UniProtKB/TrEMBL annotation, chains A, B:
One function term, GO molecular function aspect: triphosphoribosyl-dephospho-CoA synthase activity
InterPro entries linked: CitG
Name recorded for this polypeptide: Triphosphoribosyl-dephospho-CoA synthase
Organism this protein belongs to: Halogranum gelatinilyticum
Highest taxon, organism lineage: Archaea
Amino acid sequence: MTATSDRDFSPAEHAELALLLEVAGTPKPGNVDRTHDLDDLRFEHFLAGSVGSRRGLQLAEEGARVGEAFEHGVAGMSQQRGGNTQFGCLLLLVTLVRAAASDDHELTPEGVTAVVESTTVADAADFYRAFEHVDVAVDDPPADAPDLDVRRGAGAIPTLEERGLTLADVMAMSEERDGNAREWTGGFARTFATAESILADDGPVLDRASRAFVDLLAEEPDTLVATQHGPEVAREVSRRAAEVQGDPEAVERLADEFVAEGLNPGTTADITAAALFVALERGLPV
Amino acid sequence: MTATSDRDFSPAEHAELALLLEVAGTPKPGNVDRTHDLDDLRFEHFLAGSVGSRRGLQLAEEGARVGEAFEHGVAGMSQQRGGNTQFGCLLLLVTLVRAAASDDHELTPEGVTAVVESTTVADAADFYRAFEHVDVAVDDPPADAPDLDVRRGAGAIPTLEERGLTLADVMAMSEERDGNAREWTGGFARTFATAESILADDGPVLDRASRAFVDLLAEEPDTLVATQHGPEVAREVSRRAAEVQGDPEAVERLADEFVAEGLNPGTTADITAAALFVALERGLPV
């Protein structure tokens, strides 16, 4: 048997694998995982979403603009009947892949921030176009910026151009309400911290993914839960996650409860996937 | 939401998705699936194997020689610590992808047979080289051809060249002992028949994958089980599969039994993956 190394995977391959490991990691309370489906959103939709996402991840690896890579990734991800599976994951992953694959940047908070700061109005336009591929759960836009409602899709592009807003600017406008935008504007702080926790953990990678998810959820309210159910429910979800940390059977029970209650901490899953990517790039064995 | 179609996946994307749907399909008695791991061969190894396989599947789509695509697929598939996950699947899939993607062939028994018949000595050499990437469970070579033992890897290439053996010739020499070789030499008969069964079935695709696997196993002894445990055990495994056909709870019990007894019908899983690919190409919705 020839000696081989995980390091032989490219950033785009690691990113697709991160999507798959994230959805397979179980239990991840409230989310689709290896042993849980939701009513109309099932495990196989995430498998197909991962395969389709690869197009955009590959573009990011090859040096395409972040927005272009993202829009193509979302278009590919949407080629299944479950709807939105990995929109938020992709927003984080294309940026991280771009930093990992670039000669000019490194996969560090500074490197990925440089990628964020390099985005342009064209990237912002691509981001808005991506919303036309799939329904995404979003909050209302800021009261002073109704023209920038993402639900307008490409219809918002003239406003972006008029105001000269880059994708980094758009993310900065959402950071209060969206945990993924906060990763963008804050050097992917939770992503890199969680990657180190995953590397320092032991046991099978799917167990590590589950623990990372619960720790992230206990640490900070999930912004998708806040969007769908309000901030108090999101805080309560995090309190309940904190109560079961370190107790696998209690986590399993919480998973059944959250699914039954329709509580879906999707942003926490996005950051888990991003952290798995960084961990894979830093040598996490599979 | 923009209307999209599964048909937008390319053959290489469909083939990678087929690998993922195959391993996720549960219960698949004796094999790794969404709810079963073996001791040292776990679900995540198959996820990584699927991602790594894409390199070879992409080469096949782009028109590379079947052997070249196969060897690169196996090299990528082997970038995980579980060992051999999808060697047999890839042998079938690169050939089917080549037929599906080619302007000269179609994804039919005739089209794929034309791809088989186009293989050369160089493809046979690639096939032997692929055995150097990963340990594969194989039978002893024919008594009259010890120089063609696949365990010799590239060491067998001079003999292949001397005797002018193509990959189709090598498969013909193995068809008695290997169900995948029999697909190669027989127009992928079980693959195409099972694809039609999967399309005619209903319900979630992972349930269809499980039923297709059990039906294939009940129909014909698994040649990997025969290699590892002898032909009588392989026949008994098929008899036991036939007893539980159509009874999901009994299939679930059989899955636990086969895992406990170390019975791993891997060739049947290979043909299930190949059938899922053909079904996806023919419009199976995910």
